[in-house]
Write a structure and sequence with these properties.
This protein is of the alpha+beta class. Helices cover 30% and strands 28% of the residues.
């Protein structure tokens, strides 16, 4: 089941992303670290009603942030659609103990259906240039790579920006 997160679940969400960060670092993918994702980021997502959780047997096992707010870093990208009615995906995570079961696909299906049902023109996101698994995941879903952005607090390497046009 996917639903909006509750305040009492923030620590569980943070634990999931920390476990993911630890796993990625062990695989030499330095996408997330002790600074990101942060408790503040998730608290802000929660306040804006943009944080969703994936529940299995009453346990939070995954999360996704779905927002219409464009980050300033994205303003340099030549997007496929105007910056009007777009959704942005951030902080998609499945606890490592539950990965490989199609659950990230389930969260993205949820986000894409949400976008279509609410008449958004596209979904935009970024993923780390060194995370080839994520790149394949989004490209197989039809996302188009459009440019690079940088988050110096996370890595010197670029993050690739992707966009998917919503079906009408």
């Amino acid at each position: 089941m996917i639903r909006k997160a509750k305040k009492k679940e923030i620590q569980e969400v943070l634990n999931i992303t920390r476990a993911c960060a630890k796993q990625m670092i062990s695989e030499k993918i330095f996408q997330w670290n002790e600074n990101y994702p942060s408790l503040d980021a998730f608290n802000n997502d929660l306040k804006r009603n943009e944080l969703f959780v994936l529940i299995s047997e009453k346990t939070v096992i995954g999360c996704i942030t779905i927002t219409s707010k464009i980050d300033k870093e994205y303003l340099t990208i030549n997007w496929l659609t105007p910056n009007k009615k777009n959704l942005y995906i951030h902080r998609l995570a499945i606890h490592p103990n539950f990965q490989g079961k199609g659950l990230a696909r389930e969260l993205m299906d949820f986000a894409e259906n949400f976008a279509t049902e609410n008449d958004y023109s596209s979904i935009r996101l970024d993923t780390f240039s060194q995370n080839q698994r994520n790149q394949r995941f989004y490209e197989l879903r039809g996302y188009k790579k459009l440019g690079n952005i940088y988050f110096p607090n996370q890595s010197e390497d670029p993050f690739y920006c992707y966009e998917l046009l919503c079906k009408k």
